[in-house]
Design brief:
alpha+beta, five-stranded antiparallel sheet
């Protein structure tokens, strides 16, 4: 995989010097080795976000690299399909606050053939011959580099560093609380179920004798051999008391407070996490989390793919959300009717809203009244005012009669 992705981009360590940036920090970041993805709650939050992001549909506007549209829609690289590609980018971004996307090239080394999201253990911005490069070091010790303008960098929580986002140290107190909470539940359940009876010996015994007597007492009275359920003991015991075992329950408000801290950090809520959201809740989550991801990914991939001239000619990679629609049937019906009648949606677009297969001729647009193809509204010789419920055009007001107008003027 390393050879196929980077090909001739391998370099030796120490060949380059660090790139000089404005900030006092070295332009480098190291993958977080903590428990962000190891905790059940935070992993569920990241999984929910990545799952929704994976439903985005990549499209290409413009003629440049148009062949990449199908590549992006089905298999951006030889090792993963589009769903896995988007899912992994969203996951890496959530865990590391940085996601690196590298282009895959044809044999000529210039024509882009696909994209791959990498997850190195260390990433640095270095320079050689006054040209910035991004150098990656992977967990197995392999190292590679690529020109910075060819690489896509997605970030969040970017503040001190000129290129990369901050780490997740701000989440450490919440992660520690989650860990302590889980440990407390386990230990509390163990302790509450261990000791059931307490007995005080009436005399003084050696330690060995006490151990033997405890075993004898348990075997005689608390084992399954005691069929009658009656406990008997002699004068060696001053008193025997039963300890009522109560299950250990974590304080619910404290548990909710810990969860709320994680929800606030990742910008989600329990309804999104459990797929129990309403239209309004989904709309807020989409605009706050999924849409910013789609916009940033579109900009990053467009910049790493096209030249400034190609971008000026409106070539771009965009991620649409037709597969992210969540609405009631009534809302879907209203959107389908209103936008279709105004030629803002074609039939295929309506089919996408209802998750149905496209139909023949579904790419055509129609407009009322009654219905006509948009590209036939201004054809020469077509008398649109004469159409009568045939679905062939739009009624237009008749042309004024100049003779009748003069007669009206003379009679005034």
């Amino acid at each position: 995989m390393f050879e196929n992705i980077f090909k001739k981009q391998k370099i030796e360590r120490g060949v380059y010097e660090y790139f000089k940036s404005f900030s006092a920090y070295s332009p480098a970041f190291t993958s977080f080795e903590g428990g962000v993805y190891e905790m059940e709650l935070t992993r569920a939050i990241i999984h929910s976000f990545a799952t929704h992001c994976a439903k985005l549909k990549p499209e290409i506007n413009g003629s440049a690299y148009k062949h990449l549209e199908k590549v992006l829609q089905f298999k951006p690289n030889p090792y993963m399909d589009t769903y896995k590609f988007l899912y992994r980018i969203a996951t890496i971004l959530s865990v590391n606050n940085n996601a690196i996307i590298v282009p895959l090239y044809e044999s000529d080394g210039e024509t882009i053939a696909g994209y791959y999201p990498i997850c190195p253990s260390r990433t640095e911005i270095v320079q050689h011959d006054n040209k910035p490069y991004m150098r990656y070091t992977f967990a197995n010790g392999q190292c590679a580099a690529m020109e910075l303008d060819r690489v896509g960098i997605m970030t969040q929580f970017q503040y001190k560093d000129d290129f990369f986002g901050e780490d997740n140290q701000a989440l450490n107190p919440t992660l520690q609380l989650i860990h302590t909470q889980n440990e407390g539940i386990i230990e509390g359940v163990k302790n509450s179920a261990n000791i059931r009876f307490m007995a005080r010996l009436a005399q003084t015994f050696k330690d060995k004798t006490i151990e033997e007597e405890r075993k004898r007492f348990v075997d005689s009275n608390l084992s399954s051999d005691n069929k009658g359920g009656v406990m008997l003991f002699d004068a060696k015991y001053a008193e025997v008391k039963q300890i009522s075992s109560q299950p250990f329950i974590v304080n619910r408000p404290q548990m909710e407070l810990i969860q709320e801290n994680a929800f606030n950090y990742f910008g989600t809520n329990i309804n999104i996490l459990q797929n129990n959201y309403t239209e309004e809740q989904w709309g807020a989550y989409y605009e706050g989390k999924v849409e910013p991801f789609a916009i940033q990914l579109s900009i990053v991939q467009s910049n790493m793919t096209y030249t400034p001239r190609e971008l000026a000619c409106k070539n771009e990679i965009i991620y649409t959300t037709n597969k992210l629609q969540y609405a009631s049937n009534q809302t879907k019906l209203n959107v389908s009717t209103q936008l279709f009648d105004r030629a803002l949606l074609n039939r295929d677009g309506v089919m996408d809203i209802w998750n149905m297969a496209h139909v023949e001729g579904g790419e055509k647009y129609y407009i009322r009244k009654e219905y006509a193809e948009v590209n036939k509204l201004h054809e020469k010789g077509e008398d649109l005012s004469a159409t009568k419920n045939t679905g062939a055009g739009i009624s237009q007001p008749a042309k004024p009669d100049p003779v009748g107008e003069r007669q009206q003027e003379d009679g005034k």
